[in-house]
Structure formats: C-alpha cells, structure tokens
User: Which sequence fits this backbone?
C-alpha cells in the first residue's frame, strides 16, 4: 500500500497558500529570522506543514543562530528523505518530507558534536507545531 500523499499543484496551492506553496512545493526559502516557529520552545512535535506527518520532536530542537529552526535529528529517520541539491551553485543535502515529498530545508554537518553533529536547518513555513498534551 502506498502511503504517499499526492496532489496536483493546484490542490497544493489551494491548501497551502502562496507562501507555504513556494517553500514546500517549489523548494523556496523564507527570509532568515522571520519564521514564527524559530523561537518555539514548548514541548511538542513539529509536523510537516503540508501533510501533517511527524518530523521532529521538540527535544531535538536547538538554537543554532542561523535564522531558521534547527534540529539535531528527525523524530524517525524514515520521516525525512535526503537528496543531493546542486541548486544555486552549491552542493547541499535537501531534506524532504517522506510522506508528501515537500521541501523542508537542508541538513549540514555543523551541528552540535555532542549530539551527532547534524544541523537540520528547516523553514518555519515547512512546519506546523503540535504541543504535547
């Protein structure tokens, strides 16, 4: 059984609106230090802003001072898909939601070394937040 979420661009645009559509479905980036989840410190779960799939736990979030929400690891390795990204003349690793294949951000090897060394740099517009009950 295929658990992927598949929609047309028109359906995604109607659901997400233009700003979220640009980031999630067109691999855009929100301006740094503007995302509403950048300073989110409550206990809970960060979910995909397109399909609601669980992506990151609040315990994995940390302040990297890069301008976007940063995480040391996904809630489950299968929650995200990583793929090479050579756009903008750079070699980076893109992070996608495994459920709907929406763009989330990028992962870098400059995270906290005591927590695995990864920095999942994720657009706030790519996420939703569900507080723990």
Assistant:
């Amino acid at each position: 059984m295929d658990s992927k979420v598949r929609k047309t661009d028109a359906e995604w645009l109607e659901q997400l609106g233009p700003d979220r559509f640009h980031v999630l479905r067109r691999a855009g980036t929100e301006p740094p230090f503007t995302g509403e989840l950048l300073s989110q410190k409550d206990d809970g779960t960060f979910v995909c802003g397109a399909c609601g799939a669980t992506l990151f736990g609040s315990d994995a979030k940390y302040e990297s001072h890069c301008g976007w929400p940063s995480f040391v690891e996904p809630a489950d390795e299968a929650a995200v898909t990583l793929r090479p990204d050579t756009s903008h003349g750079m070699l980076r690793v893109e992070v996608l939601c495994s459920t709907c294949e929406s763009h989330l951000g990028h992962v870098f090897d400059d995270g906290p070394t005591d927590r695995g060394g990864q920095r999942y740099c994720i657009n706030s517009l790519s996420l939703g937040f569900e507080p723990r009950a």
User: Anything to note?
Assistant: The CA atoms of residues 83 and 94 lie 5 Å apart. The mean pLDDT is 95. The first strand starts at residue 44 and ends at 48.
